[in-house]
Amino acid sequence: MAKTVKKAASGPEQVVLAIDIGGSHVKILASDGGAERRADSGPDLTPRQMIDKVKALAEGLSYDVVSMGYPGPVRQNKPTRDPMNLGKGWAGFDFAAEFGKPVKVVNDALMQAIGSYEGGRMLFLGLGTGLGAAMVLESVAQPMELAHLPYKKGGSFEDYVGERGLEKRGKKKWRKHVFDVVDRLRAGLQPDYVVIGGGNVDKLDELPAGSRRGDNTRAFEGGFRLWRDKALIV
After folding, report:
1. pLDDT at residue 9 in the model
2. Pairing status of strand 16-21 against strand 65-70
3. Distance CA 10, CA 153 (A)
4. Intervals of the chain under pLDDT 50
5. What is the pLDDT of residue 215?
6. Residue of 154, 109, 107, 104 whose CA lies nearest to 127
7. Are 90 and 70 in contact (CB under 8 A)?
8. What does pLDDT average to over the chain?
């Protein structure tokens, strides 16, 4: 169920701690300034280990609420299944209870999409280990599971434009498939513009028409907007 984006009521602004969970690193940034802090993650990372790392990273920081970008599907602020590139135990985990503060958990692609949003109908695609996807439609944010839709020769979009596709077919063919997948999704979903982010966007010298390059640091801005932008429906 999607939620909408209104301006927060006047008064002291609460400090948001945004957490971006990835296959290589866990990164945090507080909304009141300072530098990004990060720690290694990896394929065996459990939610308990992640929390311990975040608490160590956040030592000396004061924050009121938490936003978390999680690499998998989320419902009612909890992961619904364990991620492909981390350890076990994430599904159903209660992060608010562990942090002792209000927590909003969203899919990581959605958090970066919210941080990249500039109005209208936006499609966000994250090129990384897999294919992350989200849309924001007139301030209504919607996570999307497009990665495993069928594409070519029995494979999925992710099989061709994810990390495996890049390694298997090489950069030239991978770029060709990225352009094709973006064109197909634009035709089907009719966004006003497309933002392409993720770690592998830097391997694109040019971008498909109607697209702009994303910035992974916008995930933190998305985390801040989850609490600040009352018009945003997630």
Report:
1. 40
2. parallel
3. 55
4. 1-11
5. 92
6. 109
7. yes
8. 92
Q: Would you state the structure tokens that stand for residue 219, as one six-digit string?
A: 């995930």
The model's pTM is 0.90
CA 133 to chain centre: 8
Contact present, 177 and 185 (Cβ < 8 Å): no
Q: Per DSSP, what are the bridge partners of residue 232?
A: 4, 5
Identify the pLDDT of residue 23. 85
d(CA 57, CA 27): 9
- Helix ranges (DSSP H) in the chain: 47-57, 95-99, 108-116, 157-161, 163-189, 218-228
Among 81, 195, 194, 220, CA closest to 145: 81
Tens-place pLDDT, residues 4-36: 433 444 346 899 999 999 888 999 999 999 999
DSSP, res 36: -
Q: Is 209 exposed, middle or buried (0-12, 13-18, 19+ CB in 10 A)?
A: exposed
Number of CB atoms found within 10 A of residue 68's CB? 26
Closest CA to 161 of 143, 136, 182, 189: 182
CA atoms within a 13 Å half-sphere pointing along the CA-CB vector of 200: 22
**Quick one: which of 217, 214, 226, 229 has its CA closest to 29?**
217
Beta strands 37-40 and 229-233, pairing class: unpaired
Are the C-beta atoms of 73 and 102 separated by less than 8 Å? no
Tokens of 174: 């991978």
Residue 4: per-residue pLDDT: 42
Token pair for residue 138? Answer: 């007139």
Q: Which residues contact 11 (CB under 8 A, 6 or more apart)?
A: none
Contact predicate 120/76, CB 8 Å:
no
